[in-house]
Amino acid sequence: MEVPGLAHNITSPLSPCEGMIKDLSLDSIQLCERDGDKSQDGSMEELPVPQNIKISNITCDSFKICWDMEARSKERITHYFIDLNKKENKNSNKFKHKDVPTKLVAKAVPLPMTVRGHWFLSPRTEYTVAVQTASKQTDGDYTVSEWSEIIEFCTADYSTVHLNQLLEKAEVIAGRMLRFSVFYRNQHKEYFNHDNQMMPSVKDNSGSHGSPISGKLEGIFFSCNTEFNTGKPPQDSPYGRLRFEVRADVLFNPDTNLYFGDFYCMYTAYHYVILVLAPRGSRGDDFCKQRLPALDIGNNRFLTCKQDEEGGLVFHHAQDVILEVIYTEPVDLALGTVAEISGHQLMSLSTVNAKKDPSCKTCNISVGR
């Protein structure tokens, strides 16, 4: 079977969608600079229009596509023109330049056909797709059918395969392990006055665009990083002047499962690793088991809980990354203490809805960012 190759900026009549410029890298798409022209020759039977388009096997950077066709002139089909575009966002910047649509030109291989390419497919993104059948003529031009109906679909989150790739990259720069004894969370006074419990909330969209926990996992963000010279939490925070501190063993112990969630940066030298702490058998634990790489709590490069010779628990965190730890269950304020920090509230360090730098070679993998 001949596999479809690469197409860039193919123009074909009556394109049904508008989209974006993409540097395409399909196994199945090839470069073609010819324009497709609907046959004006009444003596030649028109090519069949693809019907009942079906999208399946959707991942973060690929999908399978198939359709039905009438038998007439089917033997004349040499290529398929695929018009693939990001679905327009109603809230997009109206002053930003319009993106130019790109057509993928694939050789007529047996269906279903796999479309794969991380340069033009991003995770968690809505797309529109339409198809033409085409017949390449002896002079190099194409005779094409009418466009099919437009189908919409959304690409998937990162799989555990992709997350394991991120995990391996994060391990490279994690650095040595430092001892710590408390988890802490900074917020404003109103937050702690609201209730005697801190309740989980849905994680924002910070970090990798394909992260399976963004907008889905419920939890409470904690920090555990310490200053290497004091061994204590830093006195500055971007999130508020009041700090809740809780002993590490309250949230992290042998009855807790630990998962790797994400690795990212925000156009700075700092890199962040998101970890998830989920009590064994909890709803959060069930969510993470299906989606995230599990870590050995006593042997990993980011956050460890080990038993010392006297039977107590000892905790360490990685020095060279900033850990964002999500605890998936409610936390009673009576389990810890709330006090005001002596440092500054550094708003510039906030990671709320922070966008990942797509150009960083340290924390990106070869799929949609």
UniProtKB/TrEMBL annotation:
<protein>
    <submittedName>
        <fullName>Phytanoyl-CoA 2-hydroxylase interacting protein like</fullName>
    </submittedName>
</protein>
<dbReference type="InterPro" id="IPR003961">
    <property type="entry name" value="FN3_dom"/>
</dbReference>
<dbReference type="InterPro" id="IPR045545">
    <property type="entry name" value="PHYIP/PHIPL_C"/>
</dbReference>
<dbReference type="GO" id="GO:0005737">
    <property type="term" value="C:cytoplasm"/>
</dbReference>
<dbReference type="InterPro" id="IPR042868">
    <property type="entry name" value="PHYHIP/PHYHIPL"/>
</dbReference>
<comment type="function">
    <text>May play a role in the development of the central system.</text>
</comment>
<dbReference type="InterPro" id="IPR036116">
    <property type="entry name" value="FN3_sf"/>
</dbReference>
<feature type="domain" description="Fibronectin type-III">
    <location>
        <begin position="49"/>
        <end position="158"/>
    </location>
</feature>
<dbReference type="Pfam" id="PF19281">
    <property type="entry name" value="PHYHIP_C"/>
</dbReference>
<comment type="similarity">
    <text>Belongs to the PHYHIP family.</text>
</comment>
<dbReference type="Pfam" id="PF00041">
    <property type="entry name" value="fn3"/>
</dbReference>
<dbReference type="InterPro" id="IPR013783">
    <property type="entry name" value="Ig-like_fold"/>
</dbReference>
